[in-house]
Amino acid sequence: MSNTTKIQSLIQLTQYISLFIILIGLFLGSMYAYDANLFISIPVSFGLVILLYYFIDIMIAAKMDRKRDGVKIGIKMLWALFIVVAIPVNMLILHSLNVEISEKAEIQQAANEKIKALRQLKQEYTSKYETYLRDRKTTLRDDIYQYGEGLLPIGDVASKNKVSHEFIESIDHSSLMAAENAIETALISFERKKFLRQDTVIFGNTNVYLAQKEQIINGWERFAINNALNDLDKHIPETFTKLNSFLNDNAQKTLTYNKTVAEKTTLINQPVQLILKHLGFTSLIFILITNLLLLTPYLIAPSIGYGNPKKPISENVTQY
């Protein structure tokens, strides 16, 4: 194998390795920036890598074949195009590094606060409808017992507790305990199911849903984090609105809502803002390393030197 062939093979291998590393950073940065949308992330990351490969390949060829009168205007234009492509490449790679290194803990904290807020919202909903059901059962039990004792007319008991005469007659009012058990079976358990159905209408079982989100966030499942955050941002206000309305209509109670936590956004899909937030010496080092990776094949490629040709000795000898 000739020296020229060895050099070309080394340059090509270096080019493939550097572009592969760049592709990983680009794809990860694109996934974070575009909410894990593969239909955007794949074309963006692979498209930029293909353009880089094309430009670097031409630049290497030009470096190895350029004439001694200097760089042509076409090569200058190629450098300009390379820089244009390198800008989004540097931004996306720096974004992936910022998310992974500088912003990860803050993103996890914000997500866990949302999960906590949603869990508290569901717990408050359960607590308030259970309080309502307990109070209703106690009041109805006492009134039915007094009806059985002849102290209250059936009409007053029915209108006060919003039940029918037939329901009152069907309840065993021989004792407070008997009345309470009968009310629990015939009315309260049915009412509780209505509240439970409303509790699961948005995303199903709360504990399962929140456990899945905690696993994604705290386990840092990269391709699911954006969707988990977006899902929480959507479901917290939706859950509050629907549960609060249902609770108010059916139990005359209201829920509290921590809007500050629920509406807090992260910068996981904001590359420019995140770069500005963490811009500093470390960022500059990352940019330098990225561009060294991009240009390594070009830098190691030999350039052809053209010195002034030596004159033949015969021309330097004075003729006599």
Provide an overview of this structure.
By secondary structure, the protein is mainly alpha-helical. Helix content is 78%, strand content 0%. It is built from 12 helices and no strands. The radius of gyration is 36 Å and the shape is rod-shaped.
In what range is the share of β-strand residues?
Answer: under 5%
Structural class: mainly alpha
Number of strands: 0
Instruction: Please give the share of residues in helix.
Output: over 70%
End-to-end gap: 51 Å
Indicate the mean pLDDT.
85
Sketch the topology as an H/E string, one letter per element.
HHHHHHHHHHHH
Overall body shape:
rod-shaped
Question: What is the radius of gyration?
Answer: 36 Å
Largest sheet: none
Specify the number of helices.
Answer: 12
- Which stretches are poorly predicted, pLDDT < 50 over at least 5 residues? 67-71, 305-320
Describe, in short, the structure shown.
Helices cover 78% and strands 0% of the residues. The chain is mainly alpha-helical.
Layout of helices and strands:
Layout: H1 3-33, H2 38-65, H3 73-148, H4 154-161, H5 165-170, H6 176-200, H7 206-218, H8 225-251, H9 259-262, H10 271-278, H11 281-300, H12 313-316
Helix pairs in contact: 1-2, 1-3, 1-11, 2-3, 2-11, 3-6, 3-7, 3-8, 3-10, 3-11
Provide the descriptors you would attach to this structure in a database record.
mainly alpha; 0% strand; disordered C terminus; rod-shaped; 320 residues
